[in-house]
């Protein structure tokens, strides 16, 4: 598994003058599940892309197991995006084989069974519902048994029961393989339900304004008393977190 050390003095895109991230420092332990919560535009996706190496970082900003990005040994990374990003003209099995060409039919059936898609390997992804496509994207991410799993609001725009089923599945798979997880969400309840630790980012330029361990036993029900108590206490102690329009909307909606 992978530990992460992040220390970003300042992130500015080359075509812009705006600072997206500034003075952002945190670490993630091996096998830890960390949620990043913050208002729109705080730079959460940018940060995830820098961790994945999809967006340029400067030397000294991102370390894997103490190694800088340039020197890190090879590491299996799974990335689940907001959109499932499947190739519509390929079957489910062919989409899975894009990340792992030599995977056997048996392995494909096994992972599809885990995500509730038994018998769908020959279906074209365009024939699947949105929720089913997301399950394929989860299967694809877990197929390689990643050491680091990055998720960018993967369950946004799903109906509540489907989103909950996928959260349960994610937790189940995480508990089996224990990859290190960085999970971006706008939904505070989702963050509390899933994560070992919640990091709150400020409005742009984003930096960590609160780093809070979620010391509630799993499974965590959002209507459970320990859950509600933890959330109420955290919000009363850190009322400033409610600054930022979309973050405010999100908390109010819950
Ligand atoms: N490739 C890019 N070039 C220039 N600016 C960018 C690029 N990608 C993102 N940005 C800008 O960086 C800022 C942060 O964007 P980012 O998508 O990282 O935020 P976010 O917190 O993930 O937002 P949201 O929650 O709305 O998805 C925004 O102002 C965005 O316009």
From TrEMBL:
Pfam families: ABC_tran (PF00005). It comes from Amphritea japonica ATCC BAA-1530. Residues 6-228 form the ABC transporter domain. Keywords: ATP-binding, Nucleotide-binding, Transport. Signal peptide: none annotated. One of its GO terms (molecular function) is ATP binding. Belongs to the ABC transporter superfamily. SUPFAM superfamilies: P-loop containing nucleoside triphosphate hydrolases (SSF52540). The lineage of its organism: Bacteria, Pseudomonadati, Pseudomonadota, Gammaproteobacteria, Oceanospirillales. InterPro entries: AAA+_ATPase, ABC_transporter-like_ATP-bd, ABC_transporter-like_CS, ABC_transporter_ATP-bind, P-loop_NTPase. This is NitT/TauT family transport system ATP-binding protein.
């Amino acid at each position: 598994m992978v530990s992460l050390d992040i220390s970003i003095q300042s992130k500015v895109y080359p075509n812009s003058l705006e600072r997206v991230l500034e003075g952002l420092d945190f670490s993630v332990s091996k096998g830890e599940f960390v949620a990043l919560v913050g208002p729109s535009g705080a730079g959460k996706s940018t940060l995830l892309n820098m961790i994945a190496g999809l967006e340029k970082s400067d030397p000294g900003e991102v370390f894997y197991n103490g190694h800088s990005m340039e020197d890190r040994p090879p590491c299996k990374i799974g990335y689940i995006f907001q959109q499932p990003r499947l190739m519509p003209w390929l079957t489910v099995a062919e989409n899975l084989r894009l990340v792992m060409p030599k995977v056997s039919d048996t392995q494909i059936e096994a992972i599809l069974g885990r995500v509730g898609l038994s018998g769908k390997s020959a279906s074209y992804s365009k024939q699947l519902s949105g929720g089913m496509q997301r399950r394929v994207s989860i299967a694809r991410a877990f197929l390689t048994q990643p050491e680091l799993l990055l998720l960018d609001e993967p369950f946004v725009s799903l109906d509540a029961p489907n989103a909950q089923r996928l959260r349960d599945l994610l937790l189940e798979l995480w508990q089996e393989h224990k990859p290190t997880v960085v999970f971006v969400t706008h939904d505070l309840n989702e963050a509390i339900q899933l994560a070992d630790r919640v990091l709150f980012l400020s409005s742009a330029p984003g930096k960590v304004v609160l780093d809070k361990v979620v010391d509630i036993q799993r499974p965590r029900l959002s209507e459970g008393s320990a859950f509600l108590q933890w959330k109420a206490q955290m919000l009363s102690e850190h009322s400033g977190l409610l600054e930022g329009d979309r973050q405010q909307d999100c908390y109010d909606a819950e």
